[in-house]
Each structure stands twice: as structure tokens, then as C-alpha cells.
């Protein structure tokens, strides 16, 4: 547009110039006669110069530049013309015609060359197109083949990826189950985690674990999944169902082989058919084994036939290996815990036994002195009861209480001395009236629960709740009395601010046997769990210096010896209830009065009494002389043997020798041996404050005809004298 505008402007300018300038003039500068055409060669020179500058861009510019050179020469010739038809004008016109012809021929030649080049190019292009089409066809075939191969590879990789994802999923599930199982401590929770995880994440339609019993050759359904239970109910196979192995196709699994049945409907065994009846088709049974020993199996089933892959089966196999190991560890842990509990119980029992043994050994050291101290009181009390016919009933009841308490003290000392020993099976348990015994104990302990607290401004309300028609308990009256006394004392100590103390008897009727119980109930401070656990231990006390820690231990010993049960209910701030439960005693035969012994009639005897305690000597001599006997006392073993030998063979020979066991210089065994050496027919009665268990049996020691505990009871002493005289032929 700019070029055309410039050309138009130039044409207008030239037209104006040509109109203004004269066509021909007299020769002017350089002899030019046509000054109006001076600019023509200049314009052609300028156009030729511009085209020559662009000759490399296109051949037309080169041709136009050459034509412009010819046109410049032609236009230079016309500048010297004087008319339109003179020689210079003709030369100029011929030059213009030649230049234009040159340009036209050049254009035609260029067109011909270009056409030939185009035809050659088109031909080459056609040939190239044919070759390209051939190559494209070949390449297309190669691409199609590559595409098919790529599709196959993609499919294989997708399948491999799916298998990998499935394996990763199974590995994650296996890891999750393994970690969950590792956190469990018992087999039941391990099975629950495994079955629950399989139902939630695998998933399956039926999941259970069966335990195998080689002895019965059967598997028992031990655990079922939550989603499995409806199917199990439908096919009548709940937990604890017993399934024989051989008859149900389970033998291979119980031998350690993984069993896969893709279609259970075609399996001839009853167990798979039973599962198929619940709509299940595919079945996997994976064994649970430790060290090649199968103890159970994991049973998994699905409704869709042939729905378990090899990856699933391999996963279940690996899972069972982990479950087996975890179950084995749980079993070992349970066994170890059981062994530890047994060891702890054994240790506690041994410690308890050692405490009781220490108590018995310590008590036996003072038993002799206690028995010696109470022997005179016991003998004089029994003698007063028997000979005091003019005693008032009140005085006689006091003496009977003193005698009963003395007997209880004697029995207590004996039990403390032998507290660590069990009761002999041959020692009979007599019938004990618990109601009567409770009344006696309440009366004996009145000062402790009534008088002493009232003196301190404290009130303890005693209440006896006794069952009517209560059968007798099998036991020992003195021991039960002692136990109840200790329990009442303990209850009083537990109520420093006062309260209510109840002693209750009742009859317990069970499926096996009837039993009777006595309860001591207080509303005191109570005991916490640790105190309740240790309260029966010897020497354990919460009373500080006021307590010895032996009261409840004595109660425990009494219950153990009598075969009774001791139960404790206690809570801090709400009081304590001690219960002693006894077996019901067998009824005594008619005509037999338990505890009553017929009086023994003896002729006057000469008796030698040997003891290092002068008080006991005086007491023994007094009670024996009251029975009409002649008594000679010796204060040690040697003096007694000398007196026996001096009187032997004379009219004053002794009919019976009664000797103490523990004496200095010459004990009771040596005295008995010396007496028997002098006169083998003379009976020897041995008195001991150490108890009768001087050996493992109940037989009297060598050279001793009878053994009596201190303090001796008059009926027993008389019976012993009568028995030894009968054996000696007196």
C-alpha cells in the first residue's frame, strides 16, 4: 500500500512536471534537447539499483535490474531527440522494446525452468509419496504389532500389579493380625482376633477354629466368628461341636496338609456336605501345628465356588504358622503363670508351715512351765469339786468354771506346742453343742466385752442369735471354745468406740451334706484387702504392742485340725464377719453318754511320786492320799530310784511309780529304765508337760506303761492306775 501510494504520488509529480516543462528545446546542458524526460533514466536507474540489491531473493529482480539498465540507455538516447520520429527517438523506442522483450523472454525462460523443476519435483514427490506410503504401511504394521505386544505387556503388568497388590494386602493383613495376636495373652483372645480379622478384611463367609484331640481322633469347634454364627446355627454346628476326623475328610488336615475344596457339593465326606448345606461352596482347612504336631485347624469357607486363589491359600498357611506360634507362646505363658502361681502358693504354704512350726517350737519351750504352774490348781480344784459335798451351788459353779478354764488353758498350751502339726486321723471328733458352747463363751468373756469397755465409757452390745434344733458339730469342745474366745476378743479390739457384737449359729443344707456354722460379727473398723489376706499369719498384727499376732492364727489352726472351713468377710468401716463351718457330727449310740466316765474303784496302794517341783509333789500327794493311797514323794530322779530300790523286796514295796519327764540329772526315761531294771513288773506312769508326741507314734516310750499330760485329771489318773495295775496283775 505504501509502495502504491508512493508510485501514485510520483506519477502525479511527473505528470505535473511534464506539463510544466516544454517537450523540446534548444540544446541545453550537455546538449539535451528533451529536458522533460530527464527524470526517466534516473527513475529507471533507481528501480534497477533496488532490484539489483534484491537479486539474491528472486531471479525476477535480477532480470528486472538488467532490463532497467537497457531502459536507462534507451531513455538517455531520447533526451537528444528533437521530434517524435527522429533517429534518437527511434533508437530509444527500439531500446525500450528490446529491454521489455529481454525481460519477457527472461520471464518465460524462468517459467519454463520453474515448470520443469516443478514437474521434476512433482515426480520425485510422487515417487517419494509412494515410498512413504510403503514405509507408512510397514511402520503401521510394526506399530500394530508393537501395540499388540504392548497391550499384552500392559495386561501382564496389570495382572502382576493386581497380584502384587493382593499380596501386599495379604501381607498387610498378616502383619495386622500378627501384631494384634502378639498383644494377646490367652488363646481365646488370639482366636477371636484372627477370626474377626479374616471376616472383616479377607473377607470370608464362614470362619472357625477347631482344636484336635488325638486321643479321641476328633476336632472340636473352639471358636466361631460373629458373622459365621448364623450359618453355624443353621447347620447345627455351634461352638463345642465335636466332629470325628476320619469320617469327615479332616484326616489330611490333621496330618499337617493344607486342604482346598473348590466345590464342596462334589465332595463325598459329611463335613464338607454339612457346610454346603449352609450355602457354602469353597473350603480351605489350614492346620495349626507346633513342631510338626497338629493341635487344631483353621476352617475358612466362601459361598462362591472356586473363589480361593493360590495367594489366598498361601496366606492362610502363613497365617496359621503365626497363629500356631502365638498360641504356643500363650500356652507356655499360661503354663508358666500356673507354675508361678503354684510355686507362690507352695511358698506361702511353706512359709505358713514354717511360721506355725516356729510357733509350736517356741510354745513347747514354755509348755512345761505352764503345765507345772497350773497342775496344782487343777488337782486341787478337781479334788474340791469331788470332795466338797457341803459347797454352795454358787461356789461349785465357780469351781467348775475354774476347772473348765484350766482344761482350756491346758489344751491351748498343747495346741500351741503342736500347732504346726496336723490332727491325727485316728483322733476322733466328738459331737459339740454349738449353742451351749456359745453361751459358755459369752459368759467366760463377759469381762472383756462388757465390764472393761464400760469402765472406759464404751458400750458393746452383745447379741446371741442361736438356731433352734441345731445338730451337733463334729469337733473338740475345748478347741472350738478357744477359737470363739479369740474371735470375740478380736471383735472387741476392732470396736474401740463401741458397737454391736453378734454370735450366730445356723444350719447349712447343701447338695452334698449338711453343715453347721458359727459366726462372730462385729461393726468395727473392718479390714482392707491386704490385712484380710494376711490376718491369719502368725505374728501378724495391726494392734501394735497390744497385739501378739497369734489369736487369729490359733483360730486358723483350730479350723485346720478340725477339718472346718474358715471364711472372712470384711470391709473397712463396715465391720468383719468370721464364719467357722463344721461338719455335722454323727449321733452317739443310745445308752452312751459322751464325756461321762464310770467311777474307778481302787484298793489302797503304795505309790512313789517323783517330781522336781515341790508344789506338784504336794498336790499329787494330797489328792492321792484323799483317795486312800500311801504316797512317798521324791524331789528328783536319783532320790526316787534310791527310795524304790530301798523298799523293793520289803513289805513297803511300791505298787506304782509316777515320775515326771523333765528333771535335772536324771530324767523320766532314765528313772523308768532303772525301775524296770529293778522290778520289771512294777508299773511306771510318766507325767509330762511336753505333750505325748515325743515320738512319731502314740505308743508310750520304752519302760513306760502309761503317759499322762500335765496337769493330770483325777479321772484319768485313777483310770491310769487301774489300767497299769491290771497289766501288772495286781
Describe the model.
With 730 residues, the protein is an alpha/beta fold. 53% of the residues lie in helices and 15% in strands. It is built from 19 helices and 18 strands. It has helices at residues 2-20, 39-53, 59-78, 87-182, 187-201, 229-234, 251-254, 270-276, 310-387, 393-417, 434-444, 446-455, 477-493, 529-534, 551-561, 614-626, 637-647, 668-678, 714-728; strands at residues 206-213, 218-224, 242-244, 259-261, 282-290, 293-302, 430-432, 460-465, 473-475, 499-509, 514-522, 565-571, 575-583, 606-610, 630-634, 656-660, 684-688, 706-709. It has a 6-stranded antiparallel β-sheet, with helices on both faces. A 5-stranded mixed β-sheet has the order 8-10-11-13-12. Helix 16 links the parallel strand 14 and strand 15 (630-634). Helix 4 packs parallel to helix 9 (310-387) and helix 13 packs antiparallel against helix 15 (551-561). The longest helix has 96 residues, at 87-182. The chain is rod-shaped. Mean pLDDT is 80; it is low at 588-596 and 693-698.
Secondary structure blueprint with pairings:
Layout: H1 2-20, H2 39-53, H3 59-78, H4 87-182, H5 187-201, E1 206-213, E2 218-224, H6 229-234, E3 242-244, H7 251-254, E4 259-261, H8 270-276, E5 282-290, E6 293-302, H9 310-387, H10 393-417, E7 430-432, H11 434-444, H12 446-455, E8 460-465, E9 473-475, H13 477-493, E10 499-509, E11 514-522, H14 529-534, H15 551-561, E12 565-571, E13 575-583, E14 606-610, H16 614-626, E15 630-634, H17 637-647, E16 656-660, H18 668-678, E17 684-688, E18 706-709, H19 714-728
Parallel strand pairs: 8-10, 14-15, 14-16, 16-17, 17-18
Antiparallel strand pairs: 1-2, 1-6, 2-3, 4-5, 5-6, 7-9, 10-11, 11-13, 12-13
Helix pairs in contact: 2-3, 3-4, 4-5, 4-9, 5-9, 9-10, 9-16, 10-13, 11-13, 13-15, 17-18
